[in-house]
Specification:
By secondary structure, the protein is mostly helical. The protein has one domain. Helices cover 78% and strands 0% of the residues. It has eight helices and no strands. α1 runs parallel beside α7 and α2 runs antiparallel to α3. One of its GO terms (cellular component) is plasma membrane. It is a multi-pass membrane protein. Pfam families: LysE. It is found in: Cell membrane. Keywords: Cell membrane, Membrane, Transmembrane, Transmembrane helix.
Length: 209
């Protein structure tokens, strides 16, 4: 089970991170703007499946490594913290504030779905992010850590899919609006960067239970 004490914090962090622009959102915007809402929905589902695969890989691998090698726990913790801080700083310093995605060629919906899965699964940064983010909200006192990671990853994935569906619905309108409102995108960058840095600092000082 997931600790009810940390669940609200996780839900807020997950929602804030899911609404922040990233490669997955850009892919959904591109497909939705280029082929319509159905392609946007299908691409979001492909990304969701890819994220579930990444979550399971991280959960199974993380459990075996951290249980057998205590040093690996600290290594993963500090590498993950450094990566999160890096993402935050890069986001704060980014001058790219536009969410306008490039035009894409039209393709069948199954291919759109497969491309969404492959794009996510073959991105090592997704696994590294899950490795750094999800364990912060687990505790051995609440049962199987791998199961907690899978549950948290699923919740995070559901939240992200809902966001991507909404983006698919309003991609064209959102794109036109942000094109003329660079300040709004810049503020969103600062919010996202602050979240990443905060999570990185929290992870660096996290004590093993």
């Amino acid at each position: 089970m997931i600790s009810l004490a940390v669940l609200p914090l996780f839900l807020m962090a997950a929602w804030a991170l899911n609404i922040a622009p990233g490669p997955d959102m850009l892919y959904v915007i591109a497909r939705s703007a280029g082929q319509g809402q159905r392609a946007g929905f299908v691409s979001a589902l492909g990304i969701a499946v890819g994220s579930l695969i990444q979550t399971c890989i991280v959960a199974l691998g993380l459990a075996s490594i951290l249980a057998a090698v205590p040093l690996a726990y600290n290594l993963v913790k500090f590498v993950g913290a450094a990566y999160l801080v890096y993402l935050g700083v890069r986001t704060l310093l980014s001058r790219q504030h536009s969410l306008i995605a490039p035009q894409v060629e039209r393709m069948g919906l199954w291919r759109v779905f497969a491309q969404g899965v492959i794009t996510n699964v073959l991105n090592p940064k997704v696994a590294l992010f899950f490795l750094a983010f999800l364990p912060q909200f687990t505790s051995p006192a609440h049962g199987s850590v791998p199961l907690q990671i899978i549950i948290l990853g699923t919740i995070f994935n559901i939240s992200g899919t809902v966001v991507n569906f909404i983006v698919a619905l309003f991609a064209s309108v959102l794109g036109r609006w942000l094109k003329g409102h660079a300040r709004a995108s810049k503020m969103l960058n600062w919010l996202t960067g602050g979240i990443f840095i905060g999570l990185g600092v929290r992870l660096a000082f996290l004590q093993r239970q």
